[in-house]
Amino acid sequence: MAKQYSPTMVEKSWYAWWESSGYFQADSASRKPPFVIVLPPPNVTGALHMGHALTVVIEDAMIRWRRMSGYNALWVPGLHYAGITTQVVGERELVDIRNDIGHKAFVSEIFKWKERSGGTISNQLCRLGASLDWSREGFTMDEQRSSAANEAFARLHKEGLIYRDYRLVNWDCTLLTSISDTEVEHIHLKEETMLQIPGYSAPVQFGVSISFAYPLEGGLGEVVVATNRIETMLGDTAVAVHPEDKRYMHLHGRYAVHPFNGRRLKIICDAELVDPTLGTGAFKITPAHDPNDFKVGKRHNLPFISIFTDDGKINSNGGAQFEGMPRFTARVCIIEALKAKGLYKDTKSNEMNLGVCSRSALDSVRFKKIEIIPQHYEQEWNRWLENMHDWCVSRQLCWGHRVPAWYVTLEDDQEKILGSDNDRWIVARNECMARLEAQKKYPGRKFELHQDPDVLDTWFLSSLFAFTVLGWPHDTADLHSFYPTSVLETGHDVLLFRIAQMVMMGLQLCGDVPFQKVYLHPIVCDMRGQKMCKSLGNVLDPLEVINGMTHEGLLKCLRECNLDPYVLKIVKAKMKDYPYGIAECGADALRFALISYASQSDRIKFDINRVVGYRRWCNKLWNAIRFAMGKFGDHYNPPATATVDVSLMPPVCKWILSTLNEATAKIITALEAYRFSDATSAVYFWWQYQLCDVFIEAIKPYFSNDPQEFESARAASRDTLWVCLDTGLRLLHPFMPYITEELWQRLPQPKDSCRHDSIMISDYPSVVEGWTTDNHENEMYIVLDAVNKIRSLKPPSETHKRRPAFAHCRGQEMISTILRYQSIIVSLSSISSVKVLKENDETPANCAAAVVNKNLSVYLELKGALNAEVERQRLRKKRNKIQKVQYALTRKMHAAGYLREACQSVQEKDMRELMAISETEEKLDDN
Question: Which of 251, 286, 256, 257 is nearest to 269 (CA)?
Answer without folding.
Answer: 251
